[in-house]
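Q: Two folds, back to back.
A: First:
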Amino acid sequence: MRHDISSSVRHVWMFVVLVFLLTVPFAVAGWVAGAQIVPGVPLTGLAVVCPAVAAFALTFHASGTAGVRALARRAFDAGRVRRKAWFVPALLLYPALVALSYALLRTTGATLPDARVSVASAALLAAALFAGALCEELGWSGYATEPLRARWGSLGAGLILGAVWSVWHWTALLQVGRPVSWIAWWTLGTVAIRVIMAWLYGHMGGSVLAMTLFHMSVNLSWQLFPVAGSHFPVALVAVLTAGMAVIVVAGGRVRARSPEGARS
């Protein structure tokens, strides 16, 4: 059993290396073109396809077309979630943290433009962000999360994937001119996001769809923050998200130590 877990973890590191290699052409295009797909996202953002491509390639090598079909089916695997109520935090937890940050800034008298959102444009943006998030989560969640959880638990998996996920984005952030301090706060928030996602993953039967919805909600919340994310309070949101990650991890450990948690 330990040998199987170790082998699976090695496959995850192969996946990570392959994702970074596949990202290189997109990063080069981002540096050369200098264009942005949406505000704050350079052409390097098209590398969202890389985790899915890497996952499908490695799955095909290991399990052939049957494995590829099984991974593809996880794109819409809501049936894995026994208690559908878990879709509420999957969709609304991060937007609630961002809304709280907006309220706190308003309370302190910070100057912010009014939040004006067109329902039609928000729906189109959500659909595009869902597609991008799905490509990523077929890799990060569908391929990489479970072996890391088996080896290091949800917290370890979240911290490791969160760190990798953050570094993978650094090139794109530098291309749009984010200062190092901004990237540092963003990295803290991103690692915390992945810790929360690993926690949700465990409660939602390892559903890739659930992780995709959470991922989409993260990107949508940022883009809808006035104006097109330009006033997004990255440090405040990072602190709130890290605090929530601590709460869910601590809550999970308390529950595990309780008689009910031990029985379950």
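A: Second:
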Amino acid sequence: MLPPQVETTGSPVVPADRRTRDRVLRLLLERGTATAAELGEALCLSPAAIRKHLDALLTEGDVVTRERPVRAGRGRGRPAKVFTLTDAARLRCGRHTYDNMATAALRWIATHGGSGAVDAFAAEQVATLESRCRDAMEGAGDDPIARAEALADALTAEGYAANASTIATGGQLCQHHCPVAHVAAEFPELCEAETAVISRLVGTHVQRLATIAHGDGVCTTHIPAQHGNPTATVRTDR
């Protein structure tokens, strides 16, 4: 066994810390539950080091604690405290499995229903998102840039980490997270359906300049400056 990795406490989070915490999460995914001592021994971490990482994961909402069930015949004493993944962390750890299943399902739809069926599926998937965002944007007015700013706030509340800004040629809506990026890489219909939603919600045509699904760092949507009456056409980077 390797000697314990002694790590100082109280230092800011660095990439090495994140990698270690990811190892803790993977181990909990495999085992279901484990005590701090069991995790430290398996990962060759000192008691202080594993406690630092577990405290951070508790703060981040990735793990929770509970008492280990007492088996018959166990002696007196406080039951051991074990750590387990939260539902959110478990979902993230297994996201590639879900991605693969979603991609396989869309392939089946495309094979048996054609591209039109994929388009219909994508439109239905974003319909509820559109409805929630429209409700959140109530009172945003008619100006497309102001509506884009309100939409960015609504999308951020949905987990898209979005922001809007004014640029020389109009406005720009950026989404720094995409929950379906891996699936949309093969099925751009998902991006097209989302772009159509953005167009309807801001009240003008928009142009998708970049998407995370296609390897860009940010999903970027351009909102052209208004000259006369806006149209309702949508362009994407497909």
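Q: And?
A: The longest strand covers residues 162-167.
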